[in-house]
Design goal:
Blueprint: H1 2-9, E1 17-22, H2 26-35, E2 38-42, H3 51-57, H4 70-74, H5 84-93, E3 107-111, E4 119-123, H6 154-160, H7 172-185, E5 192-194, E6 196-206, E7 218-226, E8 234-245, E9 252-253, E10 266-267, H8 271-279, E11 289-292, H9 296-307, E12 312-316, H10 336-347, E13 359-363, E14 366-370, E15 375-379, E16 385-389, E17 392-395, E18 399-400, E19 443-445, H11 455-475
Helix pairs in contact: 2-11, 5-11, 9-10
């Protein structure tokens, strides 16, 4: 991978690339697979359990899914995602998974090298992206089989590695390893440039030989630097006709924006607790660790701290029974550890008569400020103030994508440009069947940036982009 990345980034190639993918997580890997000439077809003799979809699939025998009308195929499908193409691809890969079944995919994959589109995938980390930053023993929220990419099931990979699923779920460490292996096994490594930090994406550069300002073939210029072993950054600048944003949303942690949040004992990632425990800065005899947030990251922090008998104060602004709380949406049988946290939040609250010694929950408490002497001040549900001594603070209330490399930070690409870009509330505004930005020709967004927040569904965005790019390449004059 090291030698090929020099080829991709050597000086600045005068020949523009067809596609640059920024981000090497599951979205970027899946798209690279599709752009490398791996083409999905309906498997001969396969019957899809959805009658309407089955009828549509038989209308174009021998035509690849990428060459069919994705709008038409996905019409009428329902499921746990808002994206019609994501539902379509998920249904083709895992036909009856939402009904507890294990039917095999109705797709077969053919390698057609003549249809491959030259591309490069730029990523800060190893292939797998942010999965390499998650504590390895953390169990995935989704079932292990839902974490897989096309034509390599996680369960088969785990079996060969002599690894097992835990309550049908995998660990983050296994999944990160799986994504690295996937790139190698599918022969995609030459497309990947790891250690690449993108600092600017600009558009409007005329293509060499173009006719100036009226030429529609304007290029994107992607600039940044490559981190090297001796830590000296190596700058690069590439041009491409299309750019795909696949950076996820974990780059910039959400903040409380209260006084004292910048103090050295206040952090915004679980890894800070791991480091503090390794160095002895936090022990079972310390003041409690304050965890702010009521999502799964906060729950993971609670579980981690309690595993090592570190006392915890857990503060969140909602009520325990708020239907919007993620714990109230997870099946108890599948996620016993998260329901244990939810039970603690309810039964070991400051509102109850005898809170458990090692854990105290503060429902409907809003942090007001953190003091230099490690005091945390809260506003309680009645409007009064409460003060707690803490050893460490973890603010785990979500994150935002870091698109600072785009003009205006990418704000004008969101569905509501007046609000911060958010995967859940305000994603990039894309065409639902191509995932191309509605505001910039040639710019695409996939994964959480486009509102697809689970690995099983991000692959539909890759399918839509690949279909769109293949049609563009077909139309391109020789």
């Amino acid at each position: 991978m090291n030698s090929s990345r020099k080829d991709h980034l050597s000086a600045s190639s005068s020949e523009p690339l067809a596609v640059i993918i920024i981000g090497n997580g599951p979205s970027g890997i899946c798209l690279s697979y599709l752009l490398s000439g791996y083409i999905p077809y309906l498997k001969p003799g396969a019957i899809h359990p959805h009658p309407l979809l089955q009828r549509k699939l038989t209308e174009a025998p021998g035509v690849s899914i990428l060459d069919q009308d994705l709008d038409y195929l996905s019409e009428g499908l329902e499921g746990r995602c808002q994206s019609p193409v994501a539902l379509l691809f998920d249904s083709l890969l895992r036909p009856d998974t939402d009904f507890g079944g294990n039917l095999e995919s109705v797709l077969t994959w053919r390698r057609q090298k003549e249809r491959a589109i030259p591309h490069v995938v730029l990523g800060r980390n190893l292939p797998g992206g942010a999965w390499h930053s998650i504590e390895g023993s953390t169990v995935t929220l989704s079932k292990g089989q839902w974490m897989g990419l096309p034509d390599l099931q996680v369960k088969d990979w785990m079996r060969k590695k002599r690894r097992g699923l835990r309550n049908s779920r995998a660990t983050a460490g296994d999944i990160a390893h799986y994504y690295r292996d996937y790139v190698t096994k599918k022969g995609l490594g030459h497309n990947f440039v790891c250690g690449a930090v993108v600092t600017a994406v600009e558009w409007g550069t005329p293509e060499p030989g173009g006719s100036g300002s009226q030429d529609p073939s304007r290029l994107f210029q992607v600039s940044g630097f490559l981190t090297t072993q001796d830590q000296s950054p190596q700058p690069f600048s590439l041009c491409a006709r299309n750019v795909v944003l696949a950076t996820g949303t974990s780059d910039s942690p959400a903040r409380l924006d209260i006084p004292g949040e910048a103090l050295p004992f206040v952090h915004h990632e679980l890894s800070a607790l791991e480091v503090a425990m390794q160095t002895g800065a936090v022990t079972p005899a310390s003041e409690p660790v304050l965890i702010v947030g009521a999502g799964l990251s906060a729950a993971d922090a609670v579980l981690y701290a309690r595993h090592y008998n570190v006392p915890v104060i857990h503060a969140f602004r909602r009520t325990v029974d708020d239907p919007g709380l993620v714990f109230n949406q997870l099946p108890r049988m599948l996620y016993p550890e998260y329901h244990k946290v939810h039970q603690m939040m309810r039964e070991q609250s400051i509102l109850s008569p005898s809170p458990y010694k090692g854990y105290l929950s503060l429902p409907e408490h809003r942090p007001l400020l953190f003091k230099e002497d490690r005091q945390a001040v809260f506003c309680d549900p009645q409007g009064g103030q409460k003060v707690f001594g803490v050893s460490l603070v973890l603010v785990l209330i979500g994150s935002y994508p870091d698109l600072s490399f785009l003009p205006g930070g990418g704000a004008d690409l969101a569905m509501d440009p007046s609000q911060p870009l958010s995967s859940k509330r305000n994603p990039v505004d894309v065409d639902p069947f191509t995932y191309q930005s509605t505001r910039q020709e040639g710019l695409y967004a996939v994964g959480p940036l486009a509102g697809d927040n689970f690995v099983r569904f991000v692959q539909g965005g890759a399918l839509a982009v690949a279909s769109s790019l293949l049609k563009k390449e077909t139309r391109k004059p020789p």
